[in-house]
Each structure stands twice: as C-alpha cells, then as structure tokens.
Specification:
The complex is a heterotrimer of chains A (283), B (304) and C (263). Chain A has helices at 2-38, 44-48, 61-92, 97-111, 114-128, 135-160, 163-171, 176-205, 208-211, 233-242, 249-280; strands spanning 51-52, 57-58. Chain A is an all-alpha fold and 283 residues long. Chain A has a two-stranded antiparallel ribbon. In chain B, helix 6 (123-142) packs across helix 7 and helix 7 (150-174) packs antiparallel against helix 10 (204-220). Chain B has 304 residues and is mainly alpha-helical. Chain C is α/β, with parallel strands linked by helices. Chain C has ten helices and ten strands. The mean pLDDT of chain C is 90. The chains are: A mainly alpha (283), B mainly alpha (304), C alpha/beta (263). Chains A and B meet through helix 1, helix 3, helix 4, helix 5 and helix 6 of A and helix 1, helix 2, helix 4, helix 5 and helix 6 of B.
C-alpha cells in the first residue's frame, strides 16, 4: 500500500520538477540567445555614436540618452509622491472606508494596461495641458504608472520597522513626525530604495506609454530640454524590428541586448542592495 | 486650573507642513484613477455619438472605410487571453507548488531569481524574440500559413503572466501555517497527499488571486502581443482561428493611434476601446482585491 | 484609602480613575491612590490586574491605543501645584519627558550606545555637544552602566547583553532628568545579578526621583517596596507601607495572593 503511494509521490515530484524546468529553461535560453546574437554588435561606437544611414548603421546613443532622461524624470515625479503615500498608509491612515478606497485604487492603478496609460498621457499631458509630445509628458505618464510599485514596496519596508522603536521614541517625548523622520524612515530606506529601483526598471522597459507621449524614431540630435521629444530604447527596438526594411539583424539584437543589460542590471542592483542591508540591519 | 508646560515652537511649523503634505498625497491615487477615467471618457465618449451602434457592434474593423466594429478586437483579446490562461494557470500553479513545497532550499534560491529575471524582461524584447524565433517555429510545427498567430500570442503572453502567478501563489502557499502540514503528516499522509489535500486548498483564495492578477496582466499586455499575433482584425470564431492571425484591443490602439488625426472619429473610437480595456481590468482587479480582503478577514477570524 | 504619613504632598494623585478599552474590557475600575515623591511605589498583583494600564496612564502612553475611554483624573505635582494630565491643551511630549518609562522588553534603538542615551535630548532640541556628552556620562553612571561601556560608546547598542540593555534603557530615561520613573516588569527577562544591579540603582535613584514599579513577581515587589498597592482585575484592593502589606495584609484577597494561594 505504502509503496504505491510512494511511487505516486515520486512521479508527482518528478512531474513538478519537469514543469518548473519548462518554465525556467526558456528564460535562460532567451537571455543567452540575445547575449550571443547581440554581443557582436556591442562596441564603444555602438553605444556612443548617433545612428547613420536610416538607423542601419552607427550607434544608438540618442536612444540610450532618451531612456536615461525618461527614467530620471519618472523618478523625480514618482519617488516623492510614492514614498509620501506609503508613509501615509503605514503611519497615519486609520482602518476606515477611505483607506480601503485608497488601497483599492492602488491595486487598480497597477492593473491598468500600459497602452491605456499611453492614452491617458496623450489626453491629459500632451493635449489638455499642452506639453506636447515631450519628455515631460512621457515621464509624468510613466511616473503615475510606476506609483503602485513604489507605494507597496515602500509601505512594506515601513511596516517592517519594529513597532517597539516607535513606542520608545514616543515615550521619550518624541512627536509622531520626529519618530518617522529620525527612526522609521531611515530604517526603511534600504527597502524603499529597492522598491524604487524595481519600479524604475519597469518604467525603463515600457513602450506603450511612451508611444504617444514622447517617442520619436528619427531624431538627429539629442534632447535639450524636457519639452523635447526623444528616442528611447524600447521604442527603438520596436521600430527597427518591425518597420525598417533591411535592418541588419545584428543591430536589432544589439539594441535588445543593451536594453536587457540596462534593465537587468537594475534588477541586480536592487537584489544586491536588499541582501547588503539585510545583513547590516540593527534589528 | 493649571498652566501648560512650554511648547517647542521651532519644530512645529515643519511638522505641520510635512504632515499636511503626507495626508493630501494619501488621497492622490483616488484622484489619479478618476483622472484617468475622465480623460478616457473625454475623448472616448464622443465615439458613441459619432458612430452608429450597429457599426460599433458590427463585425468588421476597417477604419479607413468607416467600419468600426469592435467585436473582432474584443474577441481577439479574449481568444489570446483565454489561450494564455489555459497555458499559464496550471503551469504557474504547478511551478509555485514546486518552489514552495518540493524544492530544496538551495534550489529555491536559484529558481526564484530566475523567475524574477523573467518578470523584468521588457515586453518589447519578448515580442521581438517571439517574432524572430517563436513564430517560425510555430509555423513549422503546426504547418500553418504564418507563424504570427493567436496561439503564438497566447504562448508569449503565458510566459509574461507566469512570474506574477508564480510569486503570488507561492506567497499564498508559504503563508499556510506549518501546523496544517504537520498535522496531516502526523496522521500518516505523504507529502504529496498533504500538498494536494491540505496545503493547496488552504491557500486557495491566494491562488485564485494569483490567477486573476496573472490574467489581468495578460489582458493588458500590448507590445509582445502586437509583434506576434499578426494584427489581422478578423472574427476568431472557429477553432482554427488559433492558428491564424488575430488582433487584440491593445495592439489596435498601439498600432493605429500614431497614424490617426487628432479629434477624428477613428481617434475617438480608439479611446473608446481604451475605455473598454479600463473597465475590464477594473472589474478583474476589483474581484482580485475583494478576494484579498476576504482572505485577510478570514485569517483574522482564524487567529483570534 | 489614605495612609497617615503626615502632610507630605503627593507627587501623583489618582482620583477615581476608570479606564476601558475599545472592546469594552475594563482596564481600571475607580482607582484612587496617592504616590509620594522620593519613594518606590510597587504595583503588584496577578496578570490582567491593570498595573500596566495604570503605569501608562501616567505618561499618556495609552493615547496611542485607539478607542479607549477614561473617567476620573490623574494629577501630577509640578512647580505650580498639581496639574490634571488629561486637561485639554496639555503638552504631551513635555509630559513624557517629565514622566519616563522603562519597558519589560529592553529595546535598543538602531544606533550607537551614545546616540541611544542622547536620543531624548536631541528630540527636545538639545544640540550642544558638550552638554550632550555630559548628559550621556551622568545618565550611564546613574544607571550603573558607565564602567562597562565608557570605552565603546560608539558601538551599536544592539551588541549589549540583556541586563546591560535594560540599564541602557534606564539611562535613556534618566538623560531627560524626569521627575517620575515608571518601570513595567523591568527585570522579567534578566538574570539575578542584573536584577540585583537594577534594584540597587533604584534604591539610589529614589533620593531624587519618584519611582513607580510593577514587578513581575511578588518577591521583587517585597524587596523594593516603600509603599505597595495590590491590584486584582482592575481594582485596587489594598495599599499601604511596603513591609506591612506583605507581612500582615488587612484584606483577605491580598493575604491569599501574598501567601500564594492563587497567582
């Protein structure tokens, strides 16, 4: 009796392992393939020069610069607002209907399709507020899209700080804000930082929100101000792989590799920060 | 009755300012949701006036000739999403069970980061690879006229939904109290039996949430789907539509908005499609968050 | 229930205090008690008696709990006579600097030993480095910890042992030069030697402070009490001079508890 149950278990575990391999293996293959196919295209020229010959030669500097601008802009808008919201939820909000509505709206914001964000950005920032297709419009759109991630990871980081710290601080004559600014927030900062990096990583890789709000394909110069349009890596990859005939495959893979490296290194940075601070934690 | 001890004046202004800012920001997400809906409605509602209902609910999407039938797009999204769900939900659940219950600790530390890497790969990169590698493969294996099909879309979407499903389901399985497992094992159950008869049922609302969130992600995906499904707005009514090109709502907006005159009927209809997407994902997320709240309340009752 | 001690002015007057929590359970029922300065007042009794609740009423730490209700008054003697702590407009943060508390579980703030002791002063706005250093030394001496940590003040406080940590918490409170020191089961997790050190410090401190302690066992209550008060299920059963209450209690319930018939 028990032997057949053991057999079932053995087969079952093997099946689960197989499924997990089916999930995990292609990821490794995908990344590996892009590295292999794209590495030959990577060179200092590729990264630092403007494109030539209708994008078919030269470098992708404007796309890289554009993505950096957009990521920085997203951070400027999303981080203060998102962290403030997390502080509100973790330290000030009471358990009432309003708070539940706020949480509901955060979950909903995180579920809205990226292309709908693009429509919103078009309607509100480009048209209604008159910013035009610009880094400003794109960054604002991406910032709202990134808010839910920053809010939830920051709130978690704040809640992880032991309650006993707050009690002790209050009992020594501290006000609520002093307690937050001197103890809770500094202790939660590593967790908040990790969340911010993960959020920005996602923003850097998005195409749909920037399609109608900032992205341009062929811009012969780098952006000067936030009111300029700009190229961006995800959009660049999309266009050169679907809309430019005769585009060398090597350049396509090279662009994909640069984007992948940009995004995955942020992933690595966040993970590294997380484990570094976990070890140095004083609680 | 008595005198008050002196207050510290200097700190108070800064504190009041900081606290006011924090409290007002607290309500901003509600404002954003309302804003998003408002701007979608502003440009999208005119479509319902400019286009006759019979055309909007027709079966031809051919904007250049004035055919704005939404059904091919809606059904296209449904087909691709259902296909992705069929592929991703069981796979995700099984993989989550593996990671949470079966794999040894050291393996977990390898598998989890890899899955997180998948979560980080931009959709345009997956679409790019899907286009160059997956669709020729699909064409060969299934002997189809083209590899850009609904099935390819489902496959890529399933992969994109997997990290969400796996991590939320894995969290749910992890939070099942040890006592449940220990009790089952003490009664003589094997680990396999414990997993399927005790742990998974105990985590079922979290698992359900995982699936809803994963499906929500699939519905809203744009770039990967656009690059891999062929973008032909047909009515996918028969089973072999799986192996034919199809058009989703998201791809339609992304592909056509760039070439549309601002303020034209086409422009408004695209926004109307956006409204539909917003409403669908809103409902899915509402259901998912109600499940989360219910689970929290149930846990409270269990522990009190 | 007053005892004849002459015309000394009480430091804390509790006047018909009743306190209940959001779910209706009563923490305290109609408590009236005087606590005199430069003495150790021991609040003792079985768990759930209201001792912690009463302690936290003295520095309004109960304000942090949602939905509580109270009636009655708590008065703290000050330079201008007794003040009602719960009157509207009372500066609660200043109150907490006058009435300090040491908790059962020692908590090291995530900073160095020196910064832990300075913390209360920096909250109050003190920035003079010289004064802060003097405060740190004085407080650690008073808490009988100076000798053990004076060479490692900049190390993280979390490295200290349990007994040292609890004395650090005492030093943290002493740095603010309070008038009243509250201690809630302060040595419940400590070994006998650390416990003895803390009790010794209390005996020295009472010369300059009013001390209210809720010990976790009756032996400590008997050891340190100048005055004692027995609490059972939120009610004050009996109070009196320390030795008398433990050797010849007047109330039957007190006697049953003191002799160990229930606990």
């Amino acid at each position: 009796m028990t032997r057949s149950r053991e057999l079932v278990q053995r087969l079952g575990f093997a099946f689960l392992t197989l499924v997990t391999v089916v999930v995990v293996l292609p990821i490794v293959l995908v990344v590996g393939y892009i590295v292999v196919q794209g590495a030959p295209a990577i060179s200092w020229e590729f990264l630092s020069q403007m494109p030539r010959g209708g994008m078919r030669e030269g470098g992708i500097l404007p796309a890289i610069v554009g993505t950096l601008w957009l990521t920085a802009g997203t951070a400027v808008f999303a981080v203060p607002l998102g962290v403030a919201m997390a502080i509100y939820l973790a330290e000030y909000a009471s358990d009432n209907l309003l708070t539940r509505l706020v949480r509901l709206s955060i979950i909903n914001l995180s579920g809205i399709p990226s292309v709908v964000y693009g429509l919103f950005g078009l309607g509100m920032f480009v048209l209604f507020l008159g910013f035009g297709s610009s880094i400003l419009a794109g960054a604002l759109t991406l910032a709202i899209m990134t808010l839910p991630v920053i809010i939830s990871t920051s709130e978690e980081a704040l809640r992880a700080v032991p309650q006993s710290f707050r009690t002790v601080s209050i009992s020594l004559g501290g006000t609520k804000w002093q307690t937050i600014s001197r103890i809770v927030l500094p202790q939660a900062l590593p967790g908040i930082l990790t969340g911010v990096i993960l959020g920005l990583e996602r923003a850097a890789g998005e195409t749909a929100p920037i399609l109608f709000t900032v992205a341009a394909f062929f811009l012969p110069r780098l952006p000067h101000s936030v009111f300029d349009q700009t190229m961006a890596l995800p959009y660049h990859l999309f266009v050169i792989s679907t809309q430019v005939p005769g585009m060398p495959v090597k350049i396509q893979y090279g662009t994909a590799l640069v984007l992948l490296i940009f995004v995955l290194s942020m992933n690595l940075l966040a993970a590294g920060l997380r484990s570094y601070y976990r070890r140095r934690r004083q609680w | 009755m008595t005198n008050k001890p002196a207050r510290r004046k200097t700190h108070h202004i800064g504190e009041v300012v900081a606290e006011t800012l924090i409290r007002t920001s607290g309500l901003s997400t509600i404002a954003f949701i309302l804003l998003i809906f408002a701007f979608l409605a502003r440009e999208g509602v005119p479509a319902f006036f400019e286009v006759k209902a019979s055309v909007l609910f027709g079966t031809r999407w051919y904007p250049t000739e004035g055919f704005f039938g939404l059904w091919p797009l809606i059904l296209g999204s449904i087909l691709v999403t259902v296909g992705a769900a069929v592929l991703a939900v069981p796979t995700g659940l099984l993989a989550a069970v593996f990671v949470a219950e079966v794999s040894p600790r050291w393996l977990r530390e390898i598998v989890k980061p890899v899955i997180e890497v998948l979560a980080g790969i931009p959709s345009v990169v997956l679409g790019f690879l899907g286009m160059l590698m997956l669709s020729p493969l699909v064409r060969q294996v299934f002997n189809a006229p083209t590899g850009l099909t609904a099935f390819s879309g489902s496959l890529v979407l399933a992969y994109m939904a997997l990290p969400t499903i796996i991590s939320v389901a894995e969290d749910a399985l992890d939070s099942v109290p040890r006592a449940y497992r220990d009790a089952a094992l003490a009664l003589g159950a094997t680990r396999w039996q414990t997993i399927w008869r005790v742990t998974v049922p105990a985590a079922r609302s979290g698992i359900l949430t995982a699936m809803m969130l994963g499906i929500g992600r699939a519905i809203g995906e744009t770039m990967a789907v656009m690059m891999v499904t062929g973008n032909a707005a047909r009515m996918p009514l028969t089973l072999d539509s799986l192996m034919r090109p199809v058009r989703t709502m998201t791809a339609t907006i992304a592909a056509e908005m760039g070439e549309v005159a601002q303020g034209s009927t086409h422009f408004h209809v695209l926004f109307a499609v956006g409204i539909i997407l917003f409403v669908i994902t809103f409902l899915v997320n509402l259901a998912a968050s109600l499940a989360i709240f219910q689970q929290a309340r149930r846990a409270e009752r269990l522990l009190s | 229930m007053q005892d004849a001690i002459g015309s000394r002015v009480p430091k804390i007057i509790i006047d018909h205090l009743t306190f209940s929590y959001r779910d209706g359970t009563e923490g305290l029922r109609d408590i009236s008690l005087n606590i005199y300065p430069n003495e150790i007042m021991t609040l003792f009794g079985p768990a759930g008696g209201g001792k912690s609740t009463l302690l936290r009423a003295f520095n309004r730490l109960n304000d942090l709990v949602v939905g509580t209700r109270m009636s009655g008054r708590v008065l703290l003697d000050g330079p201008q006579g007794p003040e009602d702590l719960y009157a509207p407009g009372v500066d609660v943060t200043a109150l907490r600097r006058r009435v300090g508390i040491v908790f059962a579980q020692p908590v090291a703030l995530p900073m160095s030993i020196r910064q832990n002791v300075e913390y209360g002063s920096t909250l109050a706005g003190e920035r003079d480095r010289v004064k802060l250093a003097q405060t740190v030394e004085r407080s650690l001496v008073q808490a009988a910890l100076w000798g053990e940590v004076k060479d490692r003040l900049n190390e993280p406080a979390i490295a200290l042992s349990g007994g040292q940590l609890q004395r650090l918490c005492l030093a943290r409170v002493l740095a603010l030069e309070p008038e009243v020191i509250l201690l809630d089961e302060p040595t419940s997790g400590l070994d006998p030697i650390s416990t003895a050190k803390v009790e010794q410090s209390l005996q020295e401190l009472k010369a300059n402070y009013t001390i209210v302690i809720a010990p976790h066992n009756i032996q400590q209550a008997a050891r340190v009490a100048d005055h004692a008060a027995f609490f059972l299920q939120g009610q004050l059963i009996e109070e009196g001079l320390g030795k008398a209450l433990f050797t010849s209690p007047r109330n039957k319930k007190t006697e049953d508890y003191v002799t160990g018939r229930f606990g």
